[in-house]
Amino acid sequence: MDAFNLYGLRAITPNFTSTLNTLLDRSPPTPLPPTIRLYGQIHSRYILTPPGLLQMSEKYLSGDFGFCPLLSCRSSSSERQRCLPTGLSDVCGTSSVKLYCPKCQNTFDTNLELPNIDGEEKRENGWGGVNDGEELGEIDGAHFGTSFVGSFFLGNPELVPEGKCVTVPPCMKVFGFKVHGSSVALQPSVREAYKRSTSKRLEADGDEGNRKKIKRN
């Protein structure tokens, strides 16, 4: 396991070694609450790593974390605005997980019913396979933490809704430091440049791969 995911947890986790061994299937089960707490704290660190951010971006694009309940956040084609999970605190037991909308930059409870228009069926926000908003509300917000949203959009500037996040909401922090609205990674011009450079890099990687195949043949 990556040491970054465990940093600082030994000092705040009773019976850290035995609880960690339970998570890794190295020892008999320990009481459930400490195990859940440690797992959640490891999870909040993992989703800040490159592999974790990649997995979370795939889930975000699939709409697995739910959608903004505000009709004003819908696109011209009535497509719902996807949300991200966020915590209001990094301390376990403070509050449950919330949904953050990057378009209106509001935070919502997970059990809000989505408004229906154009004959759509009413539904609650749900996460891939977990459709009960009340069940989601039992998840500790610290399992996602306050740094995730800021790290997510700094690492994926192309996913910032157009024209948004030029001013950054108070909840957008990375490791306790507020992300300033002038951050170049959040500016529309930089996002466009990022998209172009990414496309060129992917094309170059594809050409290089083809050249290697030809060389081997």
From TrEMBL:
InterPro entries xref list: Casein_kin_II_reg-sub_N, Casein_kinase_II_beta-like, Casein_kinase_II_reg-sub
Region (Disordered) residue spans: 195-217
SUPFAM superfamilies (UniProt xref): Casein kinase II beta subunit (SSF57798)
Classification via Gene3D superfamilies: 2.20.25.20, protein kinase ck2 holoenzyme, chain C, domain 1
Biased composition (Basic and acidic residues): 195-211
GO molecular function, one term: protein kinase regulator activity
Pfam families: CK_II_beta
A GO-annotated cellular component: cytoplasm
Subunit: Tetramer of two alpha and two beta subunits.
Family: Belongs to the casein kinase 2 subunit beta family.
PANTHER family on file: CASEIN KINASE II SUBUNIT BETA
Protein name (record): Casein kinase II subunit beta
Organism field: Triparma verrucosa
